[in-house]
Amino acid sequence: MTETRTVLGKRPVQLRMRRLSPSATLPDEVVDFSRGLTLCADLGHPLRLSPTQTELVTTGLSVAIPTGYSGMILSRKGLSQKHSVSVLDAPTLISPTFTGEVRVVLHNHGRKPFTVYHGAEIAQLLVVPIPEINLFLEDDYHVHDPDMQ
Question: Rounded to two decimals, what is the model's pTM?
Answer without folding.
Answer: 0.80
